[in-house]
Every structure is written in C-alpha cells, then in structure tokens.
Amino acid sequence: MDHQPKFFENLSGTGKAIGVLTSGGDAQGMNAAVRAVVRMGIYVKAKVYFVYEGYQGMVDGGDNIVEVSWESVSSILQVGGTVIGSARCKAFRTREGRLQAAYNLVQRGITNLCVIGGDGSLTGANLFREEWSGLLEELAQKGKIDEEAVKKYAYLNIVGMVGSIDNDFCGTDMTIGTDSALHRIIEVVDAIMTTAQSHQRTFVLEVMGRHCGYLALVSALACGADWVFIPEYPPEEGWEDSMCVKLSENRARKKRLNIIIVAEGAIDCHNKPITSEKVKDLVVQRLGFDTRVTILGHVQRGGTPSAFDRILASRMGVEAVLALLEATPDTPACVVSLSGNQAVRLPLMECVQMTQEVQKAMDEGRFVEAVRLRGRSFENNLNTYKLLSHKRPDAELPKTNFNVAILNVGAPAAGMNAAVRAAVRVGITEGHKMFAVIDGFEGFARGKIKEISWGDVGGWTGQGGSILGTKRTLPAKYLEKIADQMRTYNINALMVIGGFEAYESCLQLHEARSRFEEFCVPVCVLPATISNNVPGTDFSIGADTALNAIVETCDRIKQSASGTKRRVFIIETMGGYCGYLANMGALAAGADAAYIFEEQFDIRELQANVEHLTEKMKTSIQRGLVLRNENSNENYTTDFIYQLYSEEGKGVFDCRKNVLGHMQQGGAPSPFDRNFGTKISAKAMQWISKKLKETYRKGKVFANTDDSVCLLGMRRRNLVFQPVAELKNETDFVHRIPKEQWWLKLRPLMKILAKYKTSYDVSDSGQLEHVAMHSPKEAETGAI
User: Fold this and answer.
1) Mind listing the pLDDT tens digit for each residue in 558-589?
2) Strand 334-339 vs strand 433-437: parallel, antiparallel, or unpaired?
3) What per-residue confidence (pLDDT) applies to 2?
4) Among 362, 457, 462, 486, which residue has the least CB neighbours within 10 Å?
C-alpha cells in the first residue's frame, strides 16, 4: 500500500445534520448500522436525527424526527430488527407526501440522509433527491419556507446501506441481515436433522426469498441438502423423476434422512411456482416416504444479529458518514457495500438497475443470464452446490489413477469437516482416489491412512471439531516415515487443512524435497484456525464460529452487568499472539477496550481506560466490557488488569473476570465457516487436479517448483494461491502471526464507537466505483 494515509480529522461535520432511517422489511444488524451512524456522526461533530417509522415518520414529522445523543444508541447492538421502526409508506410515493417530508427535514436543517433498507427504499430516496430543489421551490412559492432556506439547503445528499435478509441487491456481496438469517435457518436444519434421522423422514423446508434464491442456495450448501429449488435456476424438464431417483438412491445408500430446500419464489422452467406442498405431495405419491413440510417464515428475520452482521453494519455505518461528509452536489447517491473484504461505494441507481435486470431476465426465461447478473459470489455458490450434491454414476466418472491424501493439522476448528467433505467429493468427481489421514502427521507416520468414499463424508458439514482427528505435531521429526507411507500408498498430492502448524508443516515438506523425492508432489494448505493467524489470508475457517461464540457470551455478560449496574467485566479470549478474536469480538460486542499483542500498551493506557470507564459510569450506561487477548502482554496478565481495575475503580465500579477458554474452539460451525470451508476446499481440489496433470511425466508425478506448494487464501476481494516459500517473508515465526494484518485498520473503529479520541486512516475507504459486470471466466478465478 503506497498511498499516503488520509485522516478524517479534516472532514468536519460541524454545521451538518444527518437523518438516519430504516425502511422496508427489517433485518438483523440494522441497529448496529444505526448505532455506527449516530456515533460516527456525533464524533465528527454533526447533529444526528432519528427518523422513526421510515418514510412514514419523515412525512408525519413532529416527534418522529428527533435529535439523538451518544447514549440513545447504547445497548442496541445485540438487538435484532430495528429500534427506530420501519413501515411501508404510501404517502411518500406521492409528490404531496415528499413535499411534506422535504418541509419537515428543512425545518431541522437536515440535508444528509442515511437510508438503511432494500432496493425499494433506496429507489425512493434517490427520487426524493432528484426532486429536492423542485420541492424546495414549491415550498417557497407556497410561502412555507423563505428564499434563504432554499439557498442554504439547496441539495440533499443520500447514502444507502442495504439491509435485507434475502441478499437480493446487486453490487454487494452481503447485505446486512443475510448472515443472521442463515444462522436461523441452519439452527433449524440442524435441529430437524436429528429428528429426521430418528424416523427416516424426508423434510421439505421453505425459506424466504421471493425473488432471490440466495438463502435457499447457501443453506443447501451449508447443510448438504439433497435438492434445492431457487428462482434463478429452475430445474430442467422432468425434474420430478430425477429428484425421486436421487432421493431413493440416497435411501439405498443407508442415508436415513432427506432434506429438500425450497425458496418461497421457486419456479419451474415455464415460470410456474414450485411450492413446498407440491414437492411434499410428489415425494409421498411417488416414493411413499414419510415427508414433512416446515415453513420457516419470520423466524429468519428474528433473533440477535450474528457477529458478521454486526461488524459489517458497523463498518458500513462509519463508511456511510464518511461518504456523506465527502459528498458534493455532483456526487450521485451511493450505496456503501462490501466486495470480498473491502468496503466500496457504488452509485445507487446502477445497483438498482442491475437488481431489476435480474428480475427481468428471470421473467423472460433467461436464467443463465440471471445467475450471472446476481454476481460472482452467487454463481460460485451455485457451481459448488452442483459439484457436491449429485454423485455421477461410477461408469461416468473419469479415472486418473492419482491418489490424493487429506489431513488435518493443528488445533480443531469448526468448518474443517465441511472442507474435508468438499475435497473428497470434488476429488472423486475429478476421478482421483481419495485417502484420509487420521491424526495429522503423527498418524501419517504410523500409516493411519484409509481410502474414503463419497458416502463416508455425508452429513459432515454441520459437525464441529475434526472428525479425522488432528495433532499439532510437525512432520520434521517423522520425515522418513512419512516418505515411506507416501511411497506405500502411492500418494500423488496432499491437502493439508489447519492453522499455523499446517502452514509450517508444508514449509518443512517443501524444504525436505531435496532429500525425499516423495514430497515432490502438489501440496495445498487450507487455513483453518480460530486464531486467524495464518499469513496469506484475511480469513481462516473456524474464526467466524469462534467469534460468534465470544460475542454470544459477551452479550450474556453485558446483560448481567446491566442488571447489577456499575460493573466492569474483563474477558480473556484465545488467539495465541494474534489479536483478531479480541479486536473483532470487541467491535461486535460493543466493548470499551481490547488489549492485543499487535498494539503495545503500557500502564498509562490502562490508567486512561480506567478513567474512561469511571466517566462512563456517570452516564446512564453503567457497565463496562474489556477484552484481552491471552498473550497480549506477559506481565499485564488478565489477573493483573482485573486487580488494577478493581483497585482503581473502588467506590465507582466493581470488577469481574472471565476466561472463555476452549468453548471458543467447539460448537457447530457457523454458516460462514461451512460455506467458506466448502468453497475454498472445492477450489483447492480443482487446483490440485490441474497441478497433477501439469506435473505428470513418464508415468509419475514430479512437482518440485515453489508454486506447487501453495496456500489458498482470501485476499481483499479474491481467492489466491500463494507459494508458501514466498509467504515466509510475510511471517513473524516467533509469535506465529503475519507481519501485516488487515483488521488492525478496523481498530480505530472500535475506539470511536466506544467514545475514544483516535485518528482513523480513511485512505482505504471506498472511492466511488461502478458496478462491474463480470465475465463468466471471472467467476472461476474470483471471489468467494
């Protein structure tokens, strides 16, 4: 990154007024966005107003538009839905309604609007902006406002954030609320699976998504459903037969349950609806299976937002305020959104037009086009689902005579099993023989290796921990024995799934190639660790699940602290020397401070934090939450900080401490980890196949170049294969962390939202881009 840092201190909001409203259907995480807009707005010295009940409140005015303070948004981070209400508004669709709304805003000097809603709400906001000067002229003619007001409030700035559980908005990878809705769906599916297993039942699940199949598709991927119906990809003619054949084949393979997921807007290729009842009747009539329908309905909108949605919404909220401060009369209304792991700004109407294009393509039966317009993330999901759900008959499978071994290394991480399942199934589809290694490199040396089939990995996606078993042992002390086993089983490629140890192991194998020819095979590392400390990737499989566990516990602890009043909790998280869990957990749980190794702290900072909490106890928010990474400082231990806070806070607040420990490693994987694991694993397996073909000479595989031992990581917007030898320079081996970590940029965000003065480098914040139409080729290379 060569750019000069640009700090937002010179972006002052003095004299500006920002109105924030939520409109359309509610979504979990909207409150986190509202909170971030309010606090960032106040931080830059702007006035911030709530507009209650969406556009209806804007039209009605009066008590519906009120100025808010820092404390107004306390304790809403963990609440689902929207605390400022949302309503459908007929009046705003008329010019009279918009005229009244403009009058109400001008009365309070509000010329900046932050709208959180779906495409309908955002289109309405854009129309309002286009009409603004005309509306003011009309108000002046009617004598409601004077000419000075017309000049002073000449233009309206609008920034949108997309809050919609359907993820149906083009231009953004994830909308606020989608991840939480997936959490609700997956919780239900996991619960249903146990009862279906007991009775050998078939379950038809109907999920939301009238025009968009994202929730259905991703939940089908995340639970390994037998069949999925979505509006963008209707089944071919005669799907009834092929579905029934597949269900009965699965039963014949001793699978005791079938799960079919139907999006509420599912259609066949003649645009006729496919309902969950229709699917159920079909299964009962043709196969006589005991079949039940479960319609999830509004459960999907409810509940507390996931860690991902809180962080997404907080980042978007801050970005929205920055976009409003930088807006000029000439900048188009924009949407702040996420592309990969990067905040971007996109012209609102371009996104809306593209979203409408999808619907048009579907109405006209151009389904391939509809999938492409949905974006590369959707397309990748669909391609991965197709790869993993249907096993082609053995006769149709290619035969490569290559043997590929898969092993887990390091500590267990949720999502490892999903990755193993995807690798095994893609490997079999590509024609390889797949081998599972039990207990990491230790098991490898002892010959604990067995062939693994398509059916063996059924139902693995939802299982936490590591079914194959995992050990932290590095291969260095067993090199000879491992080479022997590779010769015995004729292993032509390795896939190593694990944390920092997995990365180190592959470096050792790479370095041992000169001594052992057996290691001259393609090797791919998939980062899987709760600590998220592997170089070469922004995310690791398992980190999202751990983050959700931390945030859930913090929510409970905050609730207990609110009840007792004037209490500060100090919570220790795992992560080795990597502060990712502590920092992101603090951002998602609304903590007051997070102590991490990457940002050294001294006694003065501890003192400042105590004083900050003492001040906070004088307000209406009488509780504190402080996170500390386990290795953040060898002398300022959790006990030390607890004792210091207890002593210094005497008479003002009391203190409690909590070490979260191994609960962060356990539990069923979150939808993000299941999906991330499944997708990167499928991609890695395809890479292995390509490398095997490239390096096969004279009847054997021989790969000795650096680029044949790679780590597959998510970097900003793309998935990239990076040679482990090249990653060495980016690694701090003593502390087992990457030298540069992207999330440190989000640290000031947490401080600002906790009311600390800090400087925030906004040079990375989104510049206005255009909505890119990607080519079909890009979908294969690109994002998740």
Assistant:
1) 888 877 788 999 999 999 999 999 999 999 99
2) unpaired
3) 40
4) 462
574 annotated as a binding-site residue: yes
Q: Is 270 exposed, middle or buried (0-12, 13-18, 19+ CB in 10 A)?
A: exposed
Q: What is the Cα–Cα distance from 487 to 227, expressed in whole angstroms? A: 40
Residue 73: strand, helix, or coil: helix
Helix axes 416-429, 376-389, angle to 10 degrees: 70
Tokens representing residue 755 in the block: 């009311």
Confirm or deny that 689 is annotated as ligand binding.
no
617's tokens: 């106890």
Q: Residue 455: in which H helix or E strand, if any?
A: none
Give start and end residues of each alpha helix (H) in 565-670: 580-589, 603-617, 638-648
Q: Is the pTM of this model over 0.90?
A: yes
* Cα separation values, 39 from 44, 48, 647, 761, Å: 9, 9, 31, 17
pLDDT-derived band at 777, boundaries 50, 70, 90: very low
Q: Is 314 annotated as a binding residue?
A: no
Q: How wide is the angle at C-alpha 593 spanned by C-alphas 590 and 596, nearest 5°?
A: 120
Given the residues 166, 168, 439, 673, select the one marked as catalytic. Answer: 166
The dihedrals phi and psi of 120, each to the nearest 5 degrees, come to -60, -45
3-state secondary structure of 491: coil
Helix (H, G, I), strand (E, B) or coil at 181: helix
pLDDT band at 341 (very low <50, low <70, confident <90, very high): confident
Segment (H or E) for 443: helix 440-445
Q: Is 732 a catalytic residue?
A: no
Secondary structure of residue 7 in the 3-state scheme? strand
CA 182 from chain centre, in angstroms, equals: 10
The answer to whether residue 11 scores a pLDDT higher than 70 is: no
Q: Any binding-site annotation on 164? A: yes
In three state form, how does the secondary structure of 163-232 look? Answer: ECCCCCCCCCCCCECHHHHHHHHHHHHHHHHHHHHHHCCEEEEEECCCCCCHHHHHHHHHHCCCEEECCC
DSSP string, 20-59: EEE-SS--TTHHHHHHHHHHHHHHTT-EEEEETTHHHHHH
Q: Check the annotation: does 612 bind a ligand.
A: no
Confidence of residue 7 (pLDDT cuts 50, 70, 90): low
Half-sphere exposure of 633 (CA within 13 A, CB side): 18
Q: Do 176 and 313 contact (CB within 8 A), yes or no?
A: yes
254: left (phi over 0), alpha (psi -120 to 50) or beta: left
Whether 183 has a pLDDT exceeding 70, the answer reads yes
Amino acid in the structure at residue 560: S
392 is in an annotated binding site: no
Helices (H), 696-774: 724-727, 747-753
Contact 411, 530 (CB under 8 A): yes
Distance CA 557, CA 625 (A): 9
The residue to which tokens 């010329």 are assigned:
111
- Is 372 annotated for ligand binding? no
**Of 69, 159, 152, 138, which is closest to residue 107 (Cα–Cα)?**
152
Contacting residues for 416 by C-beta, under 8 A, at least 6 apart: 408, 465, 466, 468, 470, 497, 498, 528, 541, 542, 677
Instruction: Give pLDDT, residue 4.
Output: 44
SS3 content of the chain, % helix, strand, coil (to 5): 45, 20, 35
**In this structure, how many other beta carbons lie within 10 angstroms of the beta carbon of residue 188?**
19
Amino acid code (one letter) for 384: T
State how beta strands 112-117 and 17-22 pair: parallel
pLDDT digits 0-9 by tens, 218-258:
999 999 999 999 999 999 999 999 999 999 988 888 788 89
Give CA–CA dist 659/661, Å, rounded: 6
108 is an annotated ligand-binding site residue: no
The per-residue pLDDT for 8 is 54
Tell me if residue 6 falls in helix, strand or coil: coil
Alpha-carbon span 3 to 8, nearest angstrom? 15
CB neighbours of 562 closer than 8 A, spacing ≥ 6?
A: 75, 622, 623
315 is in an annotated binding site: no
403-409 vs 470-471, strand pairing mode: parallel
Residue type at 282 in one-letter notation? L
Of 152, 160, 162, 161, give the one whose Cα is nearest residue 132.
152
